[in-house]
Amino acid sequence: MSTTTAVTPLTTADAEALVSAARRAAEAAGVAVSITVLDAGGHLLAFRRDDRAVLISGETSTRKAYTALQLNAPTADLVDAVKPDGPFHSLPTALDRPLLFIAGGIPVHRDGRLIGALGVGGGAPEQDHSFATTALTTLA
After folding, report:
1. pTM of the predicted model as reported, rounded to 2 decimal places
2. What is the DSSP string of 35-51?
């Protein structure tokens, strides 16, 4: 008989901590962003759009989080995979899903298991990725 250890799912408190940490990192850089946190099922746990953030950043932050969740990888690591010669080049159009292969989405793990994802949109892709990875350290 095998035993499995239950992993605590991503909680609302975790999601709020991620949003707060990403927001602080973006504010320190002078960048207005939107931040999305999804649970392991892809359900929205937390969302915040700064007043000055471009409107589309709400959509991009959510799509980045969804992409990171579905592929269990940071979106920054997937950018080359969807280029014309990449292994996933047709993926963005092959599925009727809101995938977005721009840096700023990262999966969230606990005890080695995928429990959700975080997406940041509104800055340059490298900035969004940095804000997200900085926020992730709050759960460590």
Report:
1. 0.92
2. EEEEETTS-EEEEEE-T
